[in-house]
Amino acid sequence: MSECFDRPPNTPPPLVSWRTRPQSFGALMAIYEDNYGRLSRLMGGFGHIAPTTVSSIEGDCDLKITLIERTPYTITLQLTYEFLPQTELNDAPNLCVRIFEDARLCSAEAMMDHPNARTLAARWQRNIFLNKWLEYLWDRGYTLSKQ
Q1: Range(s) of the domain holding residue 31
Q2: What stretch of H or E contains 132?
Q3: Are the CB atoms for 119 and 97 separated by under 8 Å?
Q4: CA 101, 92, 43: angle at the middle one, nearest 5?
Q5: Is 0.85 topped by the overall pTM?
Q6: How far apart are CA 83 and CA 61, in angstroms?
Q7: Residue 44, domain member (yes or no)
Q8: DSSP bridge partners of 78
Q9: Alpha-carbon torsion, ordered 65, 104, 46, 8, to 10 deg
């Protein structure tokens, strides 16, 4: 029996090291599973998601999450930092994230229609970025759950 089925109910999946190499589709799925756990912890679950939520911490940019779409099995969100008005930067990074609630997976999606966006290497790069970013947000004290 796999480790996934040996866990008690409502126990988050084990966190996957971002240092894992992109050797297979299965390894990418492990990162998707880890991203799901990290984002769920940051948001306090996916039961209720406001259309727009902002998390602020002292000395850092505001983190904004926008609900793009919700279907019975998937949720699409946009995660971004909001820089101060006096800067010339737009919101960045501006990452579209798709959550597969039935499979308990979370994937960083391509923001542009790039010819290589669907390759294993491109998916790995986006999802390792999301994984590191979610870890950083948690470590800095960001939260998108109701306080």
Answers
A1: 21-138
A2: helix 120-140
A3: no
A4: 30
A5: no
A6: 6
A7: yes
A8: 66, 96
A9: -140
* Token duo for residue 44: 């306090």
Amino acid in position 19: R
Number of structural domains, the chain?
A: 1
Whether 104 is covered by a domain: the verdict is: yes
Residue recorded with tokens 């919101």: 91
Task: Find the length of the chain.
Answer: 147
Question: How far apart, in whole angstroms, are the C-alpha atoms of residue 63 and residue 51?
Answer: 14
Going by C-beta distance under 8 Å and a sequence separation of 6 or more, which residues neighbour residue 56? 62, 63
pLDDT in tens, 79-93: 988 776 655 555 557
Q: How confident is the model at residue 72 (pLDDT cuts 50, 70, 90)?
A: very high
Residue 65 is assigned to a structural domain of this protein: yes
Give buried/exposed letters for 93-105 (b at 16+ CB in 10 A, else e).
eebbbbbebeeeb
In a domain, 6, yes or no: no
